[in-house]
């Protein structure tokens, strides 16, 4: 009988201890790894930040109000011991992300190498990878609305993105990856070219880019965050009090395009992306 009681006490003690151990593990220091271009860097034209070696130095801009920043800040407010590691860089393309040569310098030679090394050390404690990449592959080398050039660049970007995702998954297979589908700052051209020109930017730029991201990411179980939907990109319904389409109003409200002629989101716009990313990842 004494032996039975001793075993019972041990069993109860173990049952109590197990949840406590799991809770302790859940409370360890965690990371969110942010990768890609200026959208994930959190660039804003009114908050330049000098990064040594940048060319020009003021364009590698992490405002501290980007969607990754706001995502991690909210997780911290909820009680999480979470740290943001933001490696994203202004002007980054899929090619420079892999091989380096962009305006950011990394100790290991490229953003992807740096991310891989980080995951090699911290994959077990990384909550998620959040990323935007591909837009500069299309916009920087091509003339505006040159669909032939866009298609060529998208094909190359797809091959590069495949290499990027394969490498990230190789280092941290269990780490969730979320990629956004961007937004369309060029909807502001509605003011000069009306709906036909604004629609052309949707059809020629942002929709094919989003499709490339979705298709290339599918084999890697990437969470696609439909930020085109977040900003109601396809909705040209005229807002009565504003007298302009809803999608155009959103771009003017949540980005710097209409006030500063800059494609990047403002703090409120990045906040919408942060909410969408957190919901998509279930954090």
Gist?
By secondary structure, this protein is α/β, with parallel strands linked by helices. Helix 3 packs across helix 12, helix 5 runs parallel beside helix 7 and helix 7 packs parallel to helix 8. The N and C termini lie far apart (48 Å).
Task: Please characterize this protein's 3D structure.
The chain is an alpha/beta fold and 283 residues long. It has a domain at 30-183 and 221-228 and 267-281: SGNH hydrolase (Rossmann fold). The chain has helices at residues 2-26, 38-41, 67-77, 94-99, 111-122, 135-139, 147-171, 190-217, 227-230, 246-254, 257-260, 267-281, and strands at residues 30-36, 82-86, 126-132, 177-180, 223-225, 238-239, 244-245. β6 (238-239) and β7 form a beta hairpin. α3 crosses α12 and α5 packs parallel to α7. 42% of the residues are buried.
User: What is the number of E strands?
Assistant: 7
Q: What percentage of residues falls in helices of 4 or more residues?
A: 40-55%
Structural class: alpha/beta
The radius of gyration over CA amounts to 22 Å
Q: What is the CATH fold-level name of the domain at 30-183 and 221-228 and 267-281?
A: Rossmann fold
Instruction: Based on Cα principal axes, name the global outline.
Output: globular
> What is the count of helical runs?
12
Our estimate of the beta-strand percent is 5-15%
Q: What is the CATH superfamily label of the domain at 30-183 and 221-228 and 267-281?
A: SGNH hydrolase
Q: What is the second-level CATH architecture of the domain at 30-183 and 221-228 and 267-281?
A: 3-Layer(aba) Sandwich
Element pattern in H and E: HEHHEHHEHHEHEHEEHHH
In CATH's first tier, which class of the domain at 30-183 and 221-228 and 267-281 applies? Alpha Beta
Q: Which sheet architecture does the biggest sheet show? A: 5 strands, parallel
**Spans with pLDDT under 50 lasting ≥5 residues?**
1-26
On the 0 to 100 scale, the average pLDDT is: 88
What is the CA-CA span between the terminal residues?
48 Å
Biggest sheet, spatial arrangement of strands:
2-1-3-4-5
């Amino acid at each position: 009988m004494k032996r039975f009681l001793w075993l019972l006490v041990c069993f109860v003690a173990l049952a109590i201890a197990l949840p406590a151990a799991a809770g302790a593990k859940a409370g360890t220091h965690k990371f969110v790894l942010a990768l890609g271009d200026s959208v994930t860097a959190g660039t804003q034209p009114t908050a330049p930040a000098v990064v040594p070696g940048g060319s020009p130095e003021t364009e590698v801009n992490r405002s501290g109000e980007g969607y990754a920043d706001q995502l991690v800040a909210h997780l911290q407010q909820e009680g999480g011991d979470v740290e943001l590691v933001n490696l994203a860089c202004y002007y980054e393309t899929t090619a420079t992300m892999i091989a380096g040569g962009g305006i950011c310098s990394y100790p290991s030679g490229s953003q992807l190498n740096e991310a891989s090394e980080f995951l090699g050390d911290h994959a077990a404690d990384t909550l998620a990878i959040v990323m935007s990449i591909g837009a500069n592959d299309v916009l920087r080398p091509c003339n505006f609305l040159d669909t032939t050039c866009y298609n060529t660049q998208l094909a190359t970007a797809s091959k590069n993105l495949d290499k990027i995702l394969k490498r990230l998954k190789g280092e941290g297979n269990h780490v969730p990856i979320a990629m956004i589908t961007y937004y369309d700052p060029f909807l502001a051209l509605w003011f000069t070219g009306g709906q036909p020109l604004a629609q052309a930017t949707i059809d020629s730029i942002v929709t094919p880019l989003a499709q490339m991201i979705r298709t290339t990411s599918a084999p890697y179980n990437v969470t696609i965050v439909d930020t085109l939907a977040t900003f109601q990109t396809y909705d040209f319904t005229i807002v009565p009090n504003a007298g302009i389409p809803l999608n155009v109003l959103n771009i003017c409200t949540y980005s710097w395009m209409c006030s500063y002629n800059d494609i990047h989101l403002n703090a409120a716009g990045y906040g919408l992306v942060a909410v969408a990313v957190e919901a998509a990842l279930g954090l």
